[in-house]
Amino acid sequence: MAELKNDRFLRALLREPVDRTPVWMMRQAGRYLPEYRETRARAGDFMSLCKNPQLACEVTLQPLERYDLDAAILFSDILTIPDAMGLGLYFEAGEGPRFKKIVRSADDVEALPLPDVATDLDYVLAAVREIRSALAGRVPLIGFSGSPWTLATYMVEGGSSKDFRHIKEMMYARPEVMHRLLGKLADAVTLYLNEQILAGAQAVQIFDTWGGALSGPMYREFSLAYMQRIVNGLIREHDGRRVPAILFTKNGGQWLEAMADTGADALGLDWTTEIGDARARVGDRVALQGNMDPSVLYAPASRIRDEVARILESYGHGNGHVFNLGHGIHQFVDPEHAGIFVDAVHELSAPYHR
Q1: I need a labelling partner for 334 at 20 to 30 A (CA). Which of 36, 175, 187, 209 fits?
Q2: Is residue 352 part of a domain?
Q3: Residue 343 appears among annotated catalytic residues
Q4: 27 carries an active-site annotation
């Protein structure tokens, strides 16, 4: 593998000194870019794009051609694991992800196979290898997965949900079934992320999109405990370097201390948690990633720069900060505004690292 020319992102995750704050964007390869929309049209649909390693590589690299980003993230979807378990993932226009089979009973859970990652998800691993080769050491590559709780919400609800009626019914009325499902998913995610690491991912992120829908005790029991299990099972050294692990629970800012206890290297923050407050709470136990409201990118250039400056000041001097949006970039953002954001982070952060 080519030597890494820019390891600022990996060093920041490990709270090591950097010359300026690294920056990347969740969903940085996405619909806001006209070149992405063109490639997706060529692929035919979203899942065909995900399952074509050459095209997945192409869209992963597109934002790096436009912006001075410090990391690339694998282009894929968090629901590849349930799909590999035979649930039949598909996307309805305007409806988001759906499954042909829904998991609602103990028998449904028992019938779920543990995916053979090397076979059932070979297209993801092929994309990782292709992207890593194409990057040629330019920046690190991030692999990722959904958290067990988040994957389970889609599998039990059958798609997106506003009230989480079916999964919360299972959690409260049949907790043993819920735990069995989450245990299977934790095992699958661990295998999946480790195979991504062996294929070339240099850091991994667990996206817990729906953990914030839980009460505190339920979050610890049904979401965090299974992310802890994954962290415990991850390959943490590969290619002579540490492989950092990032946990991101949307709307999970109230649980940062418990998340830091997992042994993850970094925590992602959404925009509802002030990064300076988060740093005061977790100290130097973990790096922090985040946390600008993606909607700031609709604003004029001066307002974007002001918000970048405010967040940098909130975090303060020293190591352990990766700048990011507090969630994925919106599809209607002007691509030029994303460039203003990335450049502002690099320009304005240098004094914080002297």
Answers
A1: 209
A2: no
A3: no
A4: yes
CATH number of the domain encompassing residue 179:
3.20.20.210
Q: Which amino acid is at 53?
A: P
The one catalytic residue in 31, 66, 281, 285 is 31
Interval 16-47: pLDDT, tens: 999 999 999 999 999 999 999 999 999 999 99
H helix or E strand, kind and range, residue 145: strand 141-146
Q: Is residue 302 situated within a structural domain?
A: no
Among the listed residues 7, 70, 77, 208, the single catalytic one is: 77
Q: Is 293 a catalytic residue?
A: no
Rounded CA separation 296/326 (Å): 11
pTM for the whole thing?
A: 0.97
The verdict on residue 351 lying in a domain is no
Note if 310 is an active site residue: no
Judge whether 154 counts as a catalytic residue.
Answer: yes
- pLDDT tens-digit readout, 76-103: 999 999 999 999 998 877 778 999 999 9
**Domain presence at residue 304:** no
- Which of 27, 37, 66, 236 is catalytic? The answer is 27
Q: Pick the catalytic residue: 36, 154, 192, 226?
A: 154
Q: Which residues form the domain of 206?
A: 8-290+319-325
CA distance 215 to 78: 23
Total residue length of the chain = 354
Count of structural domains within the chain: 1
Contacts of 142 (CB under 8 A, 6+ apart): 24, 71, 72, 73, 74, 201, 202, 203, 204, 205
